[in-house]
Design a protein that fits this description.
single chain, alpha/beta, two-stranded antiparallel ribbon, Rossmann fold, binds S-adenosylmethionine
Length: about 260
């Protein structure tokens, strides 16, 4: 399915921007990334864009993982959006009691023989609680399952608990008031990318898309390290994006 077609069907539903959706779609098509793991699904809007890309390259599958408690929290649901786009065959939805780190436990166990884990995924998108402990651990677990040449996408590079919706006291089960001032003010995903991913010997290529809150890492398995901080959008569209986010938050739709 063409990008414009899926964008017309689900493009107005949170939580992925038009720019990031296009970037993800093009990455999947260009690199033919057919076995995908999506950690944090919500309405399944990114799922639909990825499924459309798989349709375009002739097949593949997306394993989607979210929380059991979030099953009825998102309207439209991921199932409804996949139905609407006619792309349901590409995705399998798993809902876990405590979250995706235990799904990763199961997945590593399922794929392990003789104390070695089979590398099965071409792409993983980590877009859940934005938390150092959970997402830091998830990174090391995902690495075990990711193929040589595969990619990890991290959302929320700049996100902090401190700047999150001030009307709520917790985010995805983590209570804000239990965090130290530094933990509240530091972007946890940035620390995962800068301290864990960049230093990891498997990840030779790290790209931070400064204006989109995304960072990507490729499992190159090489000693050479390439790091870039890129801006794709103009100042004007960045400002419009920020205003749009604030507007959504004020309307109660912020994450
Ligand atoms: C921002 S939304 C995901 C958006 C989606 N990737 C997209 O771009 O369309 C974050 C999701 O992560 C889920 N989540 C938060 N903590 C989680 C955890 N520990 N395990 C699994 N899912 C989690 C939330 O329920 C929510 O649906």
């Amino acid at each position: 399915m063409k990008f414009e077609t899926v964008a017309n069907l689900v493009g107005q539903v949170p939580f992925i921007s038009h720019g990031n959706a296009k970037y993800l779609y093009n990455l999947i098509v260009r690199e033919r990334l057919s076995n995908i793991l999506e950690l944090g699904v919500a309405h399944g809007t990114a799922t639909c864009f990825m499924a459309a890309a798989l349709d375009e390259i002739g097949g593949g599958s997306i394993t989607c993982v979210d929380l059991l408690e979030a099953k009825d929290a998102f309207e439209p649901s991921v199932e409804a959006q996949l139905q609407k786009t006619g792309l349901a065959e590409f995705a399998t939805i798993h809902r876990m009691q405590t979250g995706y780190t235990w799904f990763l436990h199961d997945e590593i166990a399922r794929n392990s023989t003789n104390h070695a884990c089979r590398q099965v995924y071409d792409l993983c998108i980590i877009d859940g609680p934005k938390n150092w402990t959970i997402d830091g651990a998830a990174f090391f677990m995902v690495d075990k399952l990711l193929k040589h040449g595969g990619w990890i996408v991290f959302d929320d590079y700049h996100w902090t608990y401190g700047a999150a919706d001030l009307r709520r006291s917790s985010t995805d089960g983590v209570t804000h008031r239990d965090l130290s001032k530094t933990e509240l003010e530091t972007p946890h995903i940035r620390e995962v990318v800068e301290l864990l991913v960049r230093q990891h010997p498997h990840y030779g290529r790290v790209v931070v898309l400064g204006d989109s809150d995304w960072a990507l890492a490729q499992k190159t398995m090489s000693e050479d390290k390439q790091y870039s901080f890129e801006y794709r959008e103009s100042i004007r569209s960045m400002l419009l994006g920020a205003l749009h986010k604030i507007f959504r938050r004020l309307k109660g739709g912020g994450r």
